[in-house]
């Protein structure tokens, strides 16, 4: 030993030293409480005792992350009460320390506790009352005590909008299978670990809120006090970073077959744009084949296979919807109904947190995905949807997007300008949006006008949502493969 450094033992020796035999009743679900801490000696006794004194029997594991205070001595005093003590021979960091405890735990459910926080006696029971076999995790409120006191309530899941900001604290109760499937604890930006895990875990089912309240200690040496993450300016920087790390993007398109010869160019533009997006999660592509043409389908398959390294999955789904019409008005109504139905089908098929609809006659610029996604994730409250700009094929002097006036008459853009603009409506040619922060269904008509895009945007605006249009994402609108309107 030199100073506070200890030469690491082998993994096998460390496992044997930390091994404790626990008798588990196979007829009941066991809860394992993992306390991972470093240098929390002054507060550790209260944390350990609160875990040991739960109203339901729990396995309690303490993981010491190479402390150099008296934490290990404090923890060892509770071995005869059933506490398992694991000693890390080097400083792992809180995420790896928690994962070490989880690897040792025998419980069907896992609950993590910081070494300076306290669980009320019925904390675990209240979480158990709210969990089901299909629930990935259960969360609750927190009450600060110590240096200052306040109460942080947590919303019900349906009202929470976790992508805006976190409300799930460290001591949620996790279904063990969900915890493992979500990828366990990980450290990406050296903070916001709870949010990171909760975002990933929420994809596995619907989380639930319980009546449990965590006692969350505030003191000058706590992690949150030292890294100043409560500073608003720092938060505004960190929130988009975590969203970019965790979000999964799905790209969807309705392939009509009208521009089958343009599909290779369309596919190339989409793939190149995806490569510039700053994401660590896989991207999927979903194509609804409405061509009713075997040759078009074969071309789509052959071209798509060239980009299997760009997308995690590429799914081509048959959508052979046909319609007949007798008048121009009838045609417009049928087209609007078809588009609403197809967009609903796309939304049900796309599994990402963010959806990007790119119509098959829109040519996106290289940095479209990067600029749209960064705008969609930015700020304290990011916009609900963002759109690129492209001209109307029917009225070439106008862009698809603009405002509704007091009489609900559409006012379109004729010039783009250079500023990102909040708009009342846009088209679905190049539209990126949060799946859970936008209308659940697409409708075909807006005030008797056949316009699925106007109807969707108007509903979003009624729900106080925001749509931003980016002039920098200037797309081409394809009339023929040789004639692209800019």
The N- to C-terminal Cα distance equals 69 Å
CATH architecture of the largest domain: Alpha-Beta Complex
Task: Using the CA coordinates, give the radius of gyration.
Answer: 27 Å
Stated plainly, the CATH topology of the largest domain is called Spore Coat Polysaccharide Biosynthesis Protein SpsA, Chain A
- Low-pLDDT sequence parts: 1-27, 225-229
- State the secondary-structure class: alpha/beta
In terms of quaternary structure, the protein is single chain
What would you note in describing this structure?
By secondary structure, the chain is α/β, with parallel strands linked by helices. The protein has two domains: 11-230, Spore Coat Polysaccharide Biosynthesis Protein SpsA, Chain A; 247-485, Spore Coat Polysaccharide Biosynthesis Protein SpsA, Chain A, CATH 3.90.550. It has helices at residues 11-18, 41-52, 71-76, 94-104, 123-130, 157-160, 176-182, 193-201, 223-227, 232-246, 263-275, 294-304, 328-349, 368-377, 452-462; strands at residues 31-37, 58-64, 84-87, 109-114, 118-119, 137-146, 150-152, 173-175, 208-218, 249-255, 283-289, 313-318, 354-358, 362-363, 385-389, 401-404, 410-412, 421-423, 425-426, 430-434, 445-446, 449-450, 467-474, 476-480, 483-485. Helix 11 links the parallel strand 10 (249-255) and strand 11. The radius of gyration is 27 Å and the shape is elongated.
Keywords:
alpha/beta, disordered N terminus, Spore Coat Polysaccharide Biosynthesis Protein SpsA, Chain A, 2 domains, 15 helices, eight-stranded mixed β-sheet, single chain, Putative glycosyltransferase EpsJ, 25 strands, nine-stranded mixed β-sheet, 486 residues
């Amino acid at each position: 030993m030199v100073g506070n450094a200890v030469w690491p033992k082998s993994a096998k020796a460390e496992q044997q030293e930390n091994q404790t035999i626990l008798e588990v009743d196979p007829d009941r679900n066991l809860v394992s409480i993992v306390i991972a801490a470093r240098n929390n000696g002054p507060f550790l006794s209260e944390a350990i005792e609160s875990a040991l004194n739960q109203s339901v029997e729990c396995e309690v594991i303490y993981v010491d992350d190479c402390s150099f205070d008296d934490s290990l001595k404090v923890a060892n005093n509770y071995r005869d009460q059933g506490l398992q003590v694991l000693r890390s021979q080097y400083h792992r960091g809180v995420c790896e320390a928690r994962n070490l405890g989880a690897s040792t735990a025998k419980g069907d459910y896992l609950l993590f506790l910081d070494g300076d926080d306290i669980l009320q006696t019925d904390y675990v029971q209240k979480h158990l009352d709210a969990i089901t076999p299909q629930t990935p995790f259960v969360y609750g409120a927190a009450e600060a005590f110590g240096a200052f006191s306040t109460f942080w309530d947590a919303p019900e899941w349906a009202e929470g909008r976790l992508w805006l900001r976190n409300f799930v604290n460290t001591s949620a109760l996790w279904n063990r299978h969900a915890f493992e499937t979500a990828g366990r604890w990980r450290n990406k930006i050296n903070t916001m670990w709870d949010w990171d895990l909760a975002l990933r875990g929420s994809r596995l089912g619907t989380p639930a809120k319980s009546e449990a309240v965590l006692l969350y200690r505030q003191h000058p040496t706590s992690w949150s006090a030292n890294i100043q993450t409560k500073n608003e300016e720092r938060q505004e920087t960190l929130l988009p970073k975590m969203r970019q790390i965790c979000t999964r993007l799905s790209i969807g398109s309705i392939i009509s077959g009208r521009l089958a010869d343009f599909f290779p160019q369309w596919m190339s533009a989409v793939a190149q744009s995806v490569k510039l997006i700053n994401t660590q999660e896989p991207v999927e592509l979903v194509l609804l084949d409405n061509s009713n043409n075997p040759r078009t389908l074969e071309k789509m398959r052959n071209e798509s296979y060239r980009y299997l390294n760009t997308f995690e999955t590429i799914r081509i789904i048959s959508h052979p919807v046909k319609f007949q019409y007798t008048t121009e008005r009838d045609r417009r109504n049928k087209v609007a109904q078809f588009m609403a139905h197809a967009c609903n089908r796309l939304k049900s098929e796309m599994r990402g947190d963010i959806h990007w609809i790119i119509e098959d006659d829109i040519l996106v610029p290289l940095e479209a995905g990067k600029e749209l996604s960064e705008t969609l994730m930015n700020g304290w409250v990011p916009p609900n949807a963002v759109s690129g700009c492209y001209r109307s094929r029917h009225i070439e002097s106008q862009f698809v997007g603009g405002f509704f006036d007091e009489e609900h008459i559409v006012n379109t853009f004729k010039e783009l300008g250079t500023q990102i603009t909040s708009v009342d409506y846009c088209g679905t040619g190049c539209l990126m949006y949060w799946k859970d922060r936008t209308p659940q269904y697409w409708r075909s008509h807006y005030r008797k006008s056949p316009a699925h895009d106007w109807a969707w945007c108007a509903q979003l605006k009624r729900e106080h949502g925001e749509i931003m249009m980016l002039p920098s994402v200037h797309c081409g609108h394809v009339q023929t493969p040789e004639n692209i309107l800019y």
